[in-house]
Amino acid sequence: MKNEKYRLDVKKSSLRSLVKAHEHLVAGLLHASTAVLREVETISPVSDIREFIRQAQVPWQAHEPMVPTLHGNALLATELKTFEKMPQPKLSRALSSLSIRTATIAPTDDSNNKTAALQDKVLAAEAEKEDSFGHSDLQKNFN
What we know:
- This protein is mostly helical.
- Among the domains are: about 1-55; about 115-143, no CATH class.
- The protein has six helices and no strands.
- The protein has helices at about 1-40, 45-55, 75-85, 95-105, 115-130, 135-140.
- The chain is elongated.
């Protein structure tokens, strides 16, 4: 009987120590979470972003212009300088054949509007045919 009572007392004391350890753990976590919460509440996103930008910025310094060395070839240097001075063409879409043809046809005073309308239809059909003409069809045509 004494052994049973002793075992029960040991179990009780171990359970008490386990409960105390658990309470201590909960109290520590509660203290840590309140400290973190206080720290988070003091953070200002605007000032933190400003400070981050200020620290990450590299101060502006004037750089010396870079001049490439062209292997001492004077002819190449002059050609490059003349090329740089030439106005560069703007990339634009090429004129379609319809717009070229209509630009070259002089306006006439035909009283017959049917022939003019027919010519417009023929030119429009040719332009559509050229627009739908693929690369492979073009190669077949010229090979």
